[in-house]
Every structure is written in C-alpha cells, then in structure tokens.
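Dear Dr. H.,

I hope your travels went smoothly. While you were away I took the liberty of generating a structure for the chain from your last submission, since the lab meeting agenda had it listed for discussion. I wanted you to have the full record in hand beforehand rather than looking at slides cold. The sequence, exactly as received, is reproduced here:
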Amino acid sequence: MSIEELKIELIDYAKSIGVDKIGFTSASPFNELKNRLKRQQELNYQSGFEESDIDKRTEPVRLLEGAESIIAIALAYPSKMEEAPAGKKGARRGIFARASWGIDYHVAVRNRLKLIEEWLVERVPKVKLKSMVDTGELVDRAVAERAGIGWSGKNCSIITPEFGSYVYLGEMITNIPFAPDSPIENECGDCTLCLDVCPTGALVQPGQLNAKSCVAFLTQTKDFLPEEFRAKIGNRIYGCDTCQTVCPKNKGKLNWIHEEFKADPEIAKPLLQPLLNISNKEFKSTFGHVSGSWRGKKPIQRNAIIALAHFKEVEAVPDLIDIMKRDERPVMRGTAAWAIGKIGGPLAEEALTGAKEVEKDEQVLSEIEKGLKLLASV
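The corresponding predicted structure, in token form, is as follows:
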C-alpha cells in the first residue's frame, strides 16, 4: 500500500470512529510560532499551565525521533444545552463553559488517537507515534491551522467552516511521511466582536491573548481572585465562552453530534449554594468526569461564592457566614467575607465585625475590610 492510499484509508477510518475532521501537516518546525511564544513570555502573557520549553512546543523532532508528519484531528462539541434549567432567587445557578460539558474531552480525544495508533501499528512496520491532547508539548491550534482543520481566529481559537470554533483538538506525530494538507483561508475579515466583548480585555489584539487576565484562566486559579476581576466573572464557575458565543462563524452551529459531549444540565449549570459545602467525595462523584474538575473543588467553590455575590443572593448569606467563620482555607473565608459585604442584608455587618475580631490571617482580614467598605458604600 502506498502512503497516499494509506492516508485515504486512514481518513475513512477516522470518520468511522467519530473523528469529525482530520488533517495532515509536516513535522517541520513552527518557526513563526516560536517567535510569538517568545514574545508572549517577554510580556508575561503565559498562563503557566503550558509547557515552558518553547523548543519542545515548536520542534516536533524533539518529541519523536525521525518525525516526518503530524496528523491533526478535531471533534465537534455542542454550542447549546438542551433543556437548560433557569436560575432564580433562592436557587441561583453557575455555568461551566461548553468545553466542560459531557465527559472530559481529554479522554474522548485520546481514545480516538489511541484507536488511530492501533490502526497504524497494524499496517505500518516500525511505525513511530506520539499523540497528545491539550496538555502535550505542541500547540494544538498551530498544528490544526497548518493541517487545514481551520483558521486561527482573532479570539485565538481554531475556527472551522463546518463546526465553528466549537472543536476539541488533538494530534499525533509520526515517522510516516504523509503528504501535507493546505491551510484554509482566514475568514475573520474586519470583524472584531470577540475583542470588543472580552470581559477583561484579555484579547489585547487580534490573535494575541494575555492569558493571565482571561476569565477562562482566572476561574481555574486557586488563590484569591484579584478584586478587579470579580465583577467580570459573573456566574461562571469554570471557563468562559464569550469570545465564541459572539463569533458570527458560530451562528447556527449546534453540533449535537456526540452523545458523550452533551450536557447534563444539573452538572453543566449547577445550583450554587450546594457547591459551598460539597465534600471531596461528592465533588468527585458528581463532577469528576468533566474537564472542569481537573483543579479540584476549591476554584469551583471560590467562583460559586463570587457568583452568589454577583446575584446579591441574600439567602446565601448564612452559608457564607458559616464559611467565613469555620472554613480552614483562607481563600474561602476571605472570599466569603468579601461576598457578604457585596450582598449586604441584616446579618452582614455583625458577622463581618465579629469575624474581624477573631481572624488571624492577614489576607482574610483584608477581605473582611473590603466587605465592610462595601457595606458602608451602599
């Protein structure tokens, strides 16, 4: 079998196992990307979650000896939730970003890549393969763009003609010299909607993101959230989709293709107050299968407190007072104190004043002061 015939058969096989798009590119270095990544580091725009070695991120041969080409795949995920529950007073809800609906996409994409690996091993003697999804060294978007999966939008997402930007990406480096596919034309045009509506201005210019001020990143941090960003979070408890939901190229792209990615409404849009006291065991059993659980319950709980403050949910104040008094984690106590001040109500001032008298942690005391100032400004 020729390499071209192998490629054609592989494309058919990929579609049969639920891969929505597949493309091929060379394993040559991503030189332009290397320069951009160096600039990102100089500007301190990196999130810290990514691989720090830029050479590994841009030179596939450093990851697989004899690398000749890269296979890129994409799986579409839903943009709409069926039967989404509505929050209301006394039953406010948070929201997980669409990339955390259904099962963890890392698992789903890796499963497809594993099947492709097995398929190639059966057909190609001495084949070498290295697959990765999101947390690997290569930059998924750069590979997908060069392999013709989609173009790189101004919102730093890969946008496909078929599914918009709602796609999960994965890639496989191989020593098989597959012929590369051609990149597709960028169709963003003069549109700047994603930049215009970014809640924190993290999209500093087309195609450049300051990850440290991106809401999606901020919701995954574990420390105190800087006060300047708290109002921007709203009721998001994991991730942010704003730059995708406003994109004209996503209009009408429902992508109800894979059952495994469809949202369980009570998990994707959960009640906020029950999250405040959820145990580790309960959190794992309820949310452990979604990608938004990867940092544990602490960021989710902190974000739930901020969301309750966003709604000024007075009925949550007793729970927040309990957290401020008893939680062992300073971030929870302090964030609760700030939220109590933000919400107000008859219990707030006495609770904050009492907590100020017994609290020892300096950061928590600072948050209590912020809460008292918020009360005084009402």
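Two observations you may find useful: The chain is about 40% helix and 10% strand. The longest helix spans residues 105-123.

With kind regards,
E. W.
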